[in-house]
Automatic annotation (TrEMBL):
This protein's record includes keyword Mitochondrion: no
Protein name: FAD-binding oxidoreductase
Cofactor(s) annotated in UniProt: FAD
Organism: Massilia rubra
Lineage, highest ranks first: Bacteria, Pseudomonadati, Pseudomonadota, Betaproteobacteria, Burkholderiales
Keywords: FAD, Flavoprotein, Oxidoreductase
The organism's place on the tree of life at top rank: Bacteria
Start and end residues of each FAD dependent oxidoreductase domain: 8-371
C-alpha cells in the first residue's frame, strides 16, 4: 500500500534531518527517506554520505559574512538541540587560523566586521594560547574564540531525527531511486520497491542530486573527491592536546592546500584520532553515479605522506602510531552558496554545501522548511543568494510533469 505524506524530504543527512525537524513543527504527515550508514563500505551497493565522521569544523570566519551568519544562527541553537535530544554533539574548542600575514589581516577584518571574539595577532601569544602548535615561518595566526569549535555530524543527525520523530515525523531508512510527478502529487519509489506519495518533496541528496531523475533538467553542481586521514593518537598525546582548537592552515606546499584538522576525538572504534584534510593535486571531479560509487568504495587507499608531514610539522613531537584514509564527496554549487529554492509543482531543493554546510546545516534546514511552509525568511537572508542554477543543455526528464521548470 502506498503511504501518503504532505511533505517528504529526500535525504536524511545534516540538512535533510534539520529540515525534517522544522517541518514537523509546522505540519502533519512529514517524513524523510534516506539510508543509514553502511556497515561495510566496500560491499555497499547504495549511495554514500559524507557525514560518516566525528569531527567537523564550526566557525563563523571561513568564507564571508553570509556563511558566517548561517553558522552563527546554527551555533546559537546547538545548546537547545543538545538539551532537547539528550545528545552531545558540540565542542566549543575555538578555531586557529594559520596563514600568510596578508590573509590573516583579511580574516581579522572579517572578525571585526562580524563582532566575532578573537585574538590577533596571535604569534606572541601562541605559547600560552596553543602551546602544542608550532607556527610555520612566514605565517601569522588568529584565534577565533568559542563558540567556534567542533561538531560530531553523526550525533547531530541523531539529535535532529530524534526530535523530529518525537514531533510526529517518520523516518524511512531506504533510498529513493525514482521520482514521478502527476497532476496531483509526487510518487517516490525506493530501492525496496516501496512507493510513497506527497504533495511536496524536498531534495537534500547532496552529491547524488542529479542521479535519480528528481529534476526535469540537471542542477549545476560539481562533485569533488575528498581525502582525509585519521591519525591515531596515544593517550599521552591526547592529554597533552586536550585544549587544542580546530585549525585551518594555508600551507605553502606543492601538492596540498587548505589544510584543516581537528583536536583529538574519540571515534566509534574507541580509539582517539586527529582528523586532517586538504585539497590535493589528485582530487578529481566526479561526473556520474558510477564514478562517485567507485571513488567511495575503491578510491585513495594509502595515506599521503605530505598530509602526515603537515600534521607533524604543526604539532611537533606527535607520536603517529597508525594512519587511516577516509574518502568523502564535496558538492559545490555554481555560485558558491547552497541551493535552497522552490522549483514549482511542489518540488524544492536544499543541497550543495560547498564543503561548509555541516556547521550551518540547522539554518539551511530551517530556511528550506520555511520555504516549503510559505513562511518569511529571517531578514539576514535573501532568496536570490540561494537560487538554483541549471546545467546548460542537460536532457529533460520525461517522467516529470511537462510544466516542471527548467
Amino acid at each position: 500500500m502506498t503511504e501518503t505524506f504532505e511533505h517528504l524530504v529526500v535525504g536524511k543527512g545534516m540538512i535533510g534531518a534539520a529540515a525534517l525537524r522544522y517541518l514537523s513543527c509546522g505540519s502533519q504527515r512529514v517524513a524523510a527517506i534516506g539510508p543509514d550508514e553502511p556497515v561495510d563500505a566496500e560491499a555497499h551497493d547504495g549511495v554514500f554520505s559524507s557525514h560518516y565522521d566525528q569531527g567537523r569544523i564550526c566557525t563563523q570566519l571561513s568564507r564571508d559574512r553570509l556563511w558566517g551568519e548561517l553558522t552563527r544562527q546554527s551555533m546559537s541553537r546547538f545548546g537547545a538541540l543538545e538539551a532537547a535530544s539528550a545528545t552531545h554533539f558540540y565542542r566549543p574548542a575555538g578555531m586557529l587560523y594559520i596563514a600568510p600575514a596578508a590573509d590573516v589581516r583579511a580574516i581579522a577584518a572579517l572578525a571585526h566586521a562580524m563582532a566575532v571574539e578573537h585574538v590577533w595577532p596571535a604569534r606572541p601569544d601562541m605559547a600560552a594560547l596553543c602551546p602544542s602548535v608550532a607556527l610555520p615561518a612566514g605565517h601569522g595566526a588568529l584565534l577565533e574564540m568559542a563558540p567556534a569549535g567542533i561538531i560530531d555530524p553523526r550525533a547531530l543527525i541523531r539529535s535532529q531525527l530524534s526530535i523530529a520523530m518525537r514531533q510526529g515525523a517518520s523516518v524511512i531508512r531506504e533510498t529513493v531511486v525514482a521520482a514521478e510527478k502527476t497532476s496531483a502529487h509526487w510518487t517516490l519509489t525506493t530501492d525496496q520497491g516501496r512507493q510513497f506519495t506527497a504533495k511536496n518533496i524536498l531534495i537534500c541528496a547532496g552529491a547524488y542530486s542529479n542521479c535519480f531523475g528528481f529534476f526535469r533538467r540537471q542542477i549545476a553542481i560539481r562533485v569533488k573527491s575528498e581525502t582525509t586521514i585519521l591519525v591515531k593518537v596515544s593517550g599521552a598525546d591526547a592529554q597533552r592536546l586536550s585544549g587544542m582548537p580546530a585549525i585551518a592552515y594555508q600551507i605553502d606546499a606543492p601538492r596540498i592546500s587548505d589544510v584543516y584538522l581537528t583536536p583529538p576525538l574519540v571515534y566509534p572504534d574507541g580509539n582517539i584520532y586527529i582528523k586532517l584534510g586538504a585539497n590535493t593535486d589528485e582530487d578529481v571531479i566526479l561526473q556520474t553515479l558510477d564514478q562517485m560509487q567507485h571513488w567511495m568504495k575503491h578510491g585513495c587507499r594509502h595515506p599521503r605522506q605530505d598530509m602526515v608531514q603537515a600534521l607533524c610539522a604543526l604539532i611537533p613531537g606527535l607520536d603517529v602510531s597508525a594512519v587511516q584514509v577516509k574518502r568523502c564527496l564535496v558538492t559545490y554549487s555554481d555560485h558558491g552558496k547552497p541551493y535552497i529554492d522552490a522549483l514549482g509543482n511542489g518540488l524544492f531543493i536544499a543541497t550543495a554545501g560547498n564543503g561548509s554546510s555541516a556547521a550551518c546545516s540547522d539554518t539551511l534546514g530551517s530556511l528550506a522548511a520555511d520555504l516549503m511552509l510559505e513562511r518569511t525568511w529571517p531578514a539576514a537572508f535573501q532568496p536570490a543568494d540561494f537560487s538554483v542554477r541549471l546545467m546548460p543543455d542537460s536532457p529533460a526528464n520525461p517522467r516529470l510533469h511537462p510544466g516542471e521548470p527548467g
